[in-house]
Amino acid sequence: MVLEFSSNWQDWLCDPYAVLGIPVTADPQRIMKRYRTVAKVLHPDRYGLADPVTRDWVTQVLARIVNPAYGKIKDDLGQREILALVRLQALKNLKDGVPVHSDIARSLKQQAVQNTEIFYEQQVSRIADEMYSVPAELEGRIQSLLELNAVYLQIKQGEQQPLRQRRTGLMSSPPAPNPAARPAAGTNANNGPLSSGLASPHHYAQRHYDRAKHYAQNADWKDALQELKDAIRLDPNCSNYHALMGFIYLKQEQMGMARVYFKQALKLNPDDKLAKRFSQYLPKPVASEPSVPEAKRGLFGRFRRR
Fold it and tell me: Could you tell me where the beta strands, DSSP code E, fall in the chain?
């Protein structure tokens, strides 16, 4: 098989996220981890026994695509600049009526608002899985990610919500597919199932909760709170999420917020052990002194106020 280096590679670098196979919401730490994974896959030592054409292709991809893409978004400043450009291009495409060819990008448009984040992260993970292990599929996968990112940013612009960087995804990476297996009917060879197999919001909320517990064990309160906010957004009726949120606010001595979340946890589940145990450590609310009408204060009342 002859491997050709696509003539579109310079256009790909307009969206380094698509090149690396990482969501546009990823933070620098997550981007660095993904880059190391890709660089490991493309390491020359892995292709010592490959034919010269394959070795040359791998060398070019790493030097001319992967490394430059990572260089553009490896820090916060680069991310802000690139993300602004990617967003502008996405909105321009929408304004100009540029058609979306990828089935997976069209499917993203059809998702309910509460499923947008889940679906987007899941499909980026599916497309990126073994993205650089199958040379013949690389160009198709990058093109799919270019459109998927564009549609996601168009949706977010419509919601008028700022993007929040994520250290981790909404789910763990799916298991690697069997290269020998043929795609089943109704699936895309590059992207996997178009809509089936989407786990419930509760499933992903639990993953956020599990990560929040890990962060809390290490006193990483900021990340723990953020994970719990995501969990509650996906599944607001679980007392465990509210109770742990209350506990973290208690540890940070934010008693008012702790009281709010403990109260909600006990409302959802009066037997929630965490909320019952630690809500007793909250100070009692200070009862406000009843006001006395000015006319009844009398002369001495006026003097006491001064």
Answer: 187-188, 192-193
